[in-house]
Specification:
The longest helix has 8 residues, at 87-94. The chain has 3 domains: 4-14 and 340-391, no CATH class; 23-163, Lamin Tail domain (Immunoglobulin-like), CATH 2.60.40; 174-319, no CATH class. By secondary structure, the protein is an all-beta fold. The protein has 1 helix and 27 strands.
Length: 392
């Protein structure tokens, strides 16, 4: 065992550099969680961290993407501007208006450098994002964007970035059960799924069973979406109507190879605006208890998914988990005014010390307020007491 009382701490004492500014790359959506619209929902958000309006006419991205801000582009003090791959899709999906584009090229899923220069070629800001080396993994295709914690601090450091909706950043699959009583009297047995507003979700392994049925016969046809004959729009199976008509099959399934991708451009409701099976394979019996079971994964926040029978005897909803997946055009969800110290590159010298050999713990520490000293403590292998060493 190394001689822990001799433990030392090596500090990387340089503090964090403040962002160069005044225009700072503040949020990056480089790999959206969508097998249908992935590329068209990419964006880079910039923010003006100065105290005055900023004219960025002629400023351009010199690497990463291809875009030049047109004449007359002014960003208010503290304001945000989203540069999108597809302006129409970004406006619709993210519900924003402060968006420009389209940019040329495509953001690399595995990471790359994005850089901005002013009209005369002077470097303004540059970020080398990644999905390794201390960078959050979740923004690489799992839903959330990549957000800068504090745009006034060096934004070319992975410690200053997080997934938009938390440390993990992934919206999970949820298992949902809804109970009720068969009440429909229209001569058909329909089941509807619809979102409470514009948004998207994935849904898989839908089951409708009569409570007490020992065989648990599934009343819906193709509830797992695996059969090669599944087609969204088939009158005998699943179809999508009204403002849910863009719904389609997806290969981002919970089980198997396929699931349904419900896409709503507005609030749904029953037959006219829903994802539905107009006539289930097994008829519902009036007055009998039923349970609807399915897996759902929300791709947008702030919405709920309703499942209901004709007649509303079975009717229930599930809401998207808390924590927005992105925040284009506004302050970041993960914004922090005073960042904690950044610590990385932790190791020992020598790397694999021998028993009873002195060793040092080395680490790189950075903080925008500076670092006076740091302490490392570790339990002793003999008496369990913590021993500390200081540096600074």
């Amino acid at each position: 065992m190394p001689r822990l009382p001799a433990l030392l701490l090596a500090l990387g004492l340089p503090t964090l550099l403040f962002a160069q500014g005044p225009l700072v790359i503040n949020e990056i959506m480089y790999h959206p969680d969508s097998d249908v619209y992935a590329a068209s929902r990419e964006y880079v958000e910039v923010t003006n961290i100065s105290a005055a309006p900023l004219n960025v006419s002629g400023w351009y991205f010199y690497t990463g993407i291809d875009y030049t801000f047109p004449p007359g582009t002014i960003i208010p003090a503290g304001g945000f501007l989203v540069v999108a791959k597809d302006v129409e899709e970004a406006t619709r999906f993210y519900q924003i208006s402060n968006v420009v584009g389209p940019f040329g090229g495509q953001l690399a899923d595995g990471g790359e450098r994005i850089g901005i220069a002013d009209a005369t070629g002077n470097l303004i800001d540059s970020v080398r994002y990644d999905d390794r080396g201390g960078w959050p993994v979740a923004p690489d295709g799992q839903g959330p964007s990549l957000e800068c914690l504090n745009p006034y601090v060096d934004n070319d450091d992975p410690a200053n970035w997080r997934a938009a909706n938390g440390a993990g950043g992934v919206q999970p699959w949820q298992y949902v059960t809804i109970n009720g009583t068969g009440t429909q009297t229209s001569g058909r047995s329909s089941i509807y799924f619809y979102l409470s507003g514009a948004g998207e979700c994935l849904i898989d392994n839908i089951e409708v069973v009569r409570v007490g049925d020992p065989l648990e016969t599934n009343h819906v046809l193709w509830g797992d979406f695996e059969d090669e004959d599944v087609v969204i729009g088939d009158a005998t199976g699943w179809r999508a109507t009204g403002n849910h008509s863009q719904s389609k099959l997806s290969n981002n399934a919970f089980f198997g190879a396929q699931c349904a991708h419900i896409i709503a451009t507005g609030a749904g409701g029953s037959d006219d605006d829903s994802f539905q099976q107009y006539n289930m394979a097994v008829s519902v019996q009036v007055g009998q208890p039923y349970q609807v079971r399915f897996w759902v994964r929300f791709l947008t926040s702030g919405v709920s998914l309703t499942a209901r029978f004709t007649g509303s005897g079975v009717n229930g909803s599930v809401s998207a988990p808390g924590g927005a997946l992105y925040s284009p055009g506004r302050s970041n969800n993960r914004l922090l005014g005073n960042l904690p110290p950044f610590i990385d590159q932790v190791g020992t010298v020598p790397e694999c010390p021998l028993p009873s050999e002195d060793c040092a713990v080395v680490a790189r520490l950075r903080d925008s307020d500076g670092i006076r000293y740091a302490t490392v403590s570790t339990p002793s292998s003999t008496d369990g007491r913590r021993k500390a060493a200081h540096a600074g």
